[in-house]
């Protein structure tokens, strides 16, 4: 357990021995779930900090037609819904479902507060986690505000290039599709069209801005 916790963003910067000694003085529980089992449902109270020790889960919600929409996959050793532990509306925003065999570590809210009070690095890590999450969601809202896939790609590539003609892309197509809120095949098709139109060129992880002016024109 301790090797995986040392890689968790909650315990970032702490070695296994330190984590072990902290947990010896902290109350927690470990729970296991099978594939497609619900860890929580949309609207359930969020009373605990949950760290994935094994496996992955997905967040799902339903649209107005009743169709299930996957919001994202979360893999060990990430934290589940960290931004919803505190605040007036401390409820799970989506259903959390196991993708495979899952094991989680659960700290009650009050116990986690004590942990943050005893170790400043954990407090800082938690603030970083929720700040990073807020920044991610802010970017996602920004991309969703653009109507077409090409507009989403254009603004993202222009921002990533920082004025350079070429840059390295750190995200996979699957991650980009998730960020843009679109299907991966649709993203791949749009990238291919933009390449054929002479706007960009992408080879593996390297993206070249071929026609910056045309890309900016897409944004109006």
> Which strand order does the major sheet show?
1-8-3-6
Number of domains: 2
Approximate shape: elongated
**What percent of residues are in strands?**
15-25%
Helix content: 40-55%
The strand count comes to: 11
**Gross CATH architecture of the largest domain:** Sandwich
CATH homologous superfamily heading of the largest domain: Jelly Rolls
Class based on secondary structure composition and strand pairing? alpha+beta
CA-based gyration radius: 20 Å
Distance between the termini: 51 Å
**CATH classification class of the largest domain:** Mainly Beta
What about the largest sheet?
4 strands, antiparallel
Mean pLDDT over all positions: 91
Q: Tell me the series of helices and strands, N- to C-terminal.
A: HHEEEEEEEEHHHEHHEEH
What is the fold-level CATH name, i.e. the topology of the largest domain?
Answer: Jelly Rolls
Provide a count of the helices. 8
Instruction: Identify low-pLDDT runs.
Output: none
Features:
40% helix; 220 residues; Arc Repressor Mutant, subunit A; 4-stranded antiparallel beta sheet; 2 domains; Jelly Rolls; 8 helices; single chain; alpha+beta
Compile the SSE list and pairings.
Layout: H1 2-5, H2 16-23, E1 29-33, E2 38-40, E3 48-54, E4 56-62, E5 68-75, E6 79-80, E7 95-98, E8 102-108, H3 109-118, H4 120-145, H5 149-161, E9 166-168, H6 173-180, H7 184-196, E10 200-203, E11 206-209, H8 212-218
Antiparallel strand pairs: 1-8, 2-7, 3-6, 3-8, 4-5, 4-7, 9-11, 10-11
Helix pairs in contact: 3-4, 5-8, 6-7
